[in-house]
Amino acid sequence: MSEEQIKDGIPPKKDSGDEVKKDFKGLLGSVRMFLSELLEIRSNTDAAATKDSIIADIPFKGHTSWILVCSIFIASIGLNANSTAVVIGAMLISPLMGPILGMGLSLAINDIDTLRRSLKNFTVMVVLSVITAFLFFYLFPLRDESSELLARTKPDIRDVLIAFFGGLALVIARAKKGTIASVIFGVAIATALMPPLCTVGFGLAIGKPWYAAGAMYLFIINTIFIGLATFLVIKFLRFPMVRYANSQRRRLIARLASITGILVMIPAGFTFYQVFQESLFKKQAQEFLRETVEVYQFDGAGRYVDNLTKLEYSDDEASVIEVVFMGDELVPDNVINTWRSQKEQYSRLKDVELHVIQGGKDDSEEKFNYVSELYEKNKAELMNKDEQIKLLEAEVAKLQFSVGKQIPFSEISREAKANYENISELGFSYLIKTDFKKLDTVPVFEIKWNDGVRNNQKETDSKKMLAWLKLRLQDSTLVVKEVE
Hints:
- The protein is of the alpha/beta class.
- The chain has 17 helices and eight strands.
- It has three domains: 196 residues; 118 residues, no CATH class; 74 residues, Cation efflux protein, cytoplasmic domain (Alpha-Beta Plaits).
- The strands form two sheets. Strands 1, 2, 3, 4 and 5 form a five-stranded mixed sheet that branches. The chain has a three-stranded mixed sheet with strand order 6-7-8.
- Helix 6 packs across helix 13.
- About 1% of the residues have low confidence.
């Protein structure tokens, strides 16, 4: 402070830097308090009620078993009919979550009896579901491989994330004082436990065990990650551990629960990593195909059949990208070699094998019957899609014709009455006629004249009206007919 300020008696100012630090600390404290109030869930948790409600939902007997059977039937019908709405309805009424939540809870609180009961009922649930789905698809005459069914035969990274975060949402909702029902219903839909079980039954019923294996793998992944989410939330909320009178038994059970939890988490982590790697491979493979194969232009009769493309990921062996071309024109070898060079630019595709199958040969000199076999395998699906496209095109054509031929009859009738005062009635209809070579639809106007109008006047007015209507409606095919 200067001597002048001391002489004048001016008080010294506080250090502005200290004030800024103080304000900043206050801001951080406010933000911390806000986030704590926003995200804190322990204070509103009812541990005893949550534990009791989860344990109560574990058993599968009586009403619960019949509800499960009915929901599996409904889901199987929905998958068979390719109806997402029906499948969602089945998931809403299914009681599948009980044993899975029970396993996560029991591992978190060292409750070996609840774990044993959960595993028993989980096994009953899976067996009952698969048998029900198997009987439906085995006895039901229509066994189309719908897209809803095929989508449940192989998991990807999104299935893992949905199961984990769905499990988190579910157990947090169950732990809250006053359960949030909408969350429970939403998780039942999002985690989609039922469709894979139905697909297992479908695969066994049609004699394709690899379908069943893929669907069961997806179901197990969902189960593990829902259980893992339950375990983590219960641990975070610090539910009280189960106490045993015998200290040795308590320590043994605690060790068993910990070992079981670790054993569950190891395959969960491995599965997550494997599925994540496969998803990254497929993403780069699809990007590679979009930038190379899909943009290739044929000069003649050749085309890329994108729905026959196969992306096969493998941890141990080389992964494969297989593309199929049909038609007489072949892709030149130099173009294929260019594609292989471009493939090296993608970090996850460097060691991937690119197989190009086309026409009468492929670059690995496999026989053409492989293409035929591949085509026959997908022919049913292609024909079904072609039939749907033709049906939709026919419907669009009908709508376009209907719109194009639409007659503003109310306006026409008012204008006709204003221009021709002798009209008594005016009618309109479409007449379908043929010359046995083609069908024609002709718009016909029927006119009834007032009594007392001379014939030559009727004939003159009819001709004028015909000319006016053709000009007014821009249709040279319409007909004016006089009726009595």
